[in-house]
Structure to design on (751 residues):
């Protein structure tokens, strides 16, 4: 047997080549595996980060007992400073005290009453943002307001308490001689003050004070102009009066639950609106307070229930007090009720010592704790809602730290209809901020999800027929040379920045559609009809004429035809509108059918975003159709099937997994689109299926509001929750799409 060195060298080279190829294959496999794992890890990291930011929204509220202090045995009023470390007390004897809420040490004290007078303990009416009105035994009223000035000495914060007198240090005379006070309240915004009183003769009297004209430097000694309204007799004896922050509305509450509602905008002539019975027979009012902002009235009863009421306009545009919601977490009679200063939350304590926190908008019972304080005489919440203090009958003051950062969030406030203050009915509303501090945040994600789905629906409704039909023609009928030009040109459209499309849609397309709305509707119908008509006429042409244009290039005849049809319908649009619709089709639609036409609407978004989605759907669908094996099509044609039968029964079924993937990728692109939606729609979070109304999508809302949100605020975290919802939505869509695609592949892969 001979040895051939040449063959041996070739064998070695082939072996070396195979080994190197094996190494490259393994290296490529590992690279793909690492890349895939990295993508999954990145997605998981994004998901975990979103979850980490959102999780605090759903953390339970906690009350942590901290050191209390010994207060007076007879306290007529209790309130806290901003940080909850300083307490202001007024005793039944008419003395005031500022106490350190941590150790009970006295910081400032004095006597409030003029000589020869006594305090009526039941008439220490306190208004959350305003003044404390004290009823005196001689029928007069004294209005005081605690103030706190922060000091910093060597970077150590301190507080200097003081008292101010919004209407002067001399008590106000409100009632005639011999008539005693029965109910009293006051409200002050620093410049104007309103005091309301009810005498034991059931007469309601209102005094309004305002600074005199000119520059006032010392509010305590400022000259005041006082207007005393004529008395009005109440239907039921009032035990509590409440004035809202704006000093526009007054509520007189009786023991049996009759609430008299007054409009006091004109302080000289208060107007009685109505008297409403807010309790069932057998129950009594134990406490009444105005919620932060002064728009809602909280009524606590002897059965342990708490109801929220606020004025609602009826069909005749008249204000009517309406019961909005109720809370029944406490079973014993409510002894004290105290709202927060700036949020729609409030605290309540019953006679058995159970302390509860509630939030009205979210309709949440935040926490219920047993304090052990029987028949608590006073309850106070610090302005920042971080501390609560309750005083028992023996003068023992107990204090709690409240961890309650996001009470506004609940399933109800995020996804269900909520009856907000000032609205006529429950609604889905997103309105996260306002210029006023008493604003009620509205964090409903439902209109944002609705807007996202609406944008995707109209975009796909416009894009899917054009993209798939274009892909079918390009891959199956178009001449190869023409396909080599058309396909790359459409794919280049995918690289066009969406901000450019949004800019063109908002500033050029939207006004054009509004001006030529009749032409847009006509083109939607006439352009497909023109294509079918042209195809039918071309089919009737003699073969010699058809031979002029090579097969697969007939599309060249359609382009000028479609341009001509579009130019014609746009040209006759305004004359036809003038003839049939009074020159303004949008206005006619509103008059005849009640459609509100916004210039930047869903129609504009559908067209603009459709152009952004078409390249993705077209490219993937065209590749799937073009990749169908030629032996399948030639075999079908050889068996006598027509080209259209082959297309519908062989090609499309085989390519269906790829076509479906293209549609789902287009859906994902439409759901996550930001700039087109942001720039080409009104960006209003409304829930309306109308083609002529705008909307706000989740992605656009995040882009608009995230730069303005406060770090770690409820608004900030809810925006991350919206991002998490968008992330999960696209994940679910893609997962379902992959499952369907795999089933289609298994079903039609054997053709």
């Amino acid at each position: 047997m001979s040895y051939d060195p040449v063959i041996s060298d070739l064998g070695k080279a082939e072996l070396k080549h195979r080994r190197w190829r094996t190494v490259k294959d393994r290296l490529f496999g590992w690279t793909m595996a690492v890349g895939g794992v990295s993508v999954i890890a990145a997605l998981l990291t994004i998901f975990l980060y979103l979850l980490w930011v959102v999780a605090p929204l759903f953390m339970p509220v906690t009350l942590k007992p901290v050191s209390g202090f010994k207060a007076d045995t007879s306290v007529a009023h209790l309130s806290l400073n901003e940080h909850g470390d300083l307490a202001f007390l007024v005793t039944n004897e008419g003395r005031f005290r500022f106490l350190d809420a941590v150790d009970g040490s006295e910081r400032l004290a004095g006597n409030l009453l003029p000589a020869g007078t006594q305090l009526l303990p039941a008439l220490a009416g306190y208004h959350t943002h305003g003044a404390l009105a004290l009823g005196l035994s001689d029928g007069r009223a004294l209005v005081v307001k605690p103030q706190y000035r922060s000091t910093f000495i060597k970077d150590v914060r301190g507080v200097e308490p003081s008292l101010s007198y919004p209407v002067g240090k001399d008590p106000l005379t409100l009632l005639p001689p011999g008539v005693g006070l029965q109910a009293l309240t006051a409200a002050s915004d620093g410049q104007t003050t309103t005091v309301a009183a009810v005498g034991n003769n059931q007469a309601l009297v209102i005094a309004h004070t305002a600074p005199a004209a000119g520059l006032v430097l010392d509010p305590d000694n400022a000259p005041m102009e006082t207007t005393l309204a004529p008395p009005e007799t109440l239907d039921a004896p009032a035990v509590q009066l409440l004035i809202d922050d704006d000093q526009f509305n007054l509520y007189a509450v009786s023991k049996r639950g009759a609430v008299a509602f007054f409009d006091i905008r004109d302080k000289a002539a208060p107007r009685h609106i109505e008297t409403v019975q807010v309790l069932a027979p057998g129950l009594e009012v134990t406490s009444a307070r105005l919620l932060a902002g002064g728009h809602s009235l909280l009524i606590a009863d002897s059965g342990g229930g708490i109801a929220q009421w606020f004025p609602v306009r009826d069909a005749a545009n008249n204000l009517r007090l309406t019961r909005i919601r109720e809370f029944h977490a406490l079973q014993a009679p409510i002894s004290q009720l105290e709202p927060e200063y700036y949020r729609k939350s409030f605290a309540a304590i019953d006679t058995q010592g159970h302390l509860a926190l509630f939030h009205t908008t979210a309709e949440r019972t935040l926490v219920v704790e047993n304090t052990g304080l029987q028949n608590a005489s006073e309850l106070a919440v610090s302005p920042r809602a971080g501390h609560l203090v309750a005083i028992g009958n023996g003068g023992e003051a107990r204090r709690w730290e409240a961890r309650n950062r996001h009470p506004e969030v609940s399933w109800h406030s995020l996804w269900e209809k909520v009856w907000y203050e000032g609205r006529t009915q429950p609604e889905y509303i997103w309105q996260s901020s306002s210029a006023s501090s008493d604003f009620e945040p509205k964090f409903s994600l439902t209109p944002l999800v609705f807007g996202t789905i609406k944008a995707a629906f109209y975009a796909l409704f416009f894009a899917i027929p054009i993209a798939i039909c274009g892909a079918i023609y390009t891959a199956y009928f178009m001449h190869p040379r023409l396909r080599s030009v058309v396909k790359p040109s459409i794919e280049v459209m995918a690289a066009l920045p969406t901000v450019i499309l949004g800019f063109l849609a908002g500033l050029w397309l939207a006004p054009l559609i509004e001006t030529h709305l009749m032409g847009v509707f006509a083109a939607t119908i006439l352009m497909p009809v023109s294509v079918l008509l042209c195809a039918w006429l071309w089919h009737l042409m003699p073969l010699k004429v058809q031979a002029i244009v090579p097969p697969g290039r007939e599309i060249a005849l359609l382009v000028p035809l479609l341009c001509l049809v579009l130019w014609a319908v746009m040209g006759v649009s305004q004359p036809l509108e003038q003839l049939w619709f009074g020159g303004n089709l949008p206005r006619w639609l509103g008059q005849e059918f009640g459609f509100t036409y916004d210039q930047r609407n869903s129609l504009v978004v559908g067209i603009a975003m459709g152009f952004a989605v078409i390249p993705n759907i077209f490219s993937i669908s065209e590749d799937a159709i073009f990749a169908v094996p030629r032996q399948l099509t030639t075999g079908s044609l050889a068996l006598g099937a027509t080209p259209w039968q082959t297309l519908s029964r062989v090609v499309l079924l085989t390519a269906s997994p790829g076509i479906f993937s293209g549609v789902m990728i287009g859906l994902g692109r439409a759901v996550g689109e930001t700039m087109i939606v942001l720039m080409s729609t009104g960006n209003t979070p409304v829930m309306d299926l109308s083609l002529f109304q705008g909307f706000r999508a989740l992605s656009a809302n995040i882009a608009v509001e995230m730069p303005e949100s406060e770090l770690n605020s409820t608004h900030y975290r809810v925006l991350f929750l919206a991002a998490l919802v968008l992330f999960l939505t696209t994940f679910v869509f893609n997962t379902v799409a992959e499952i369907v695609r795999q089933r289609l592949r298994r079903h039609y892969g054997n053709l």
The chain has 15 helices and 32 strands.
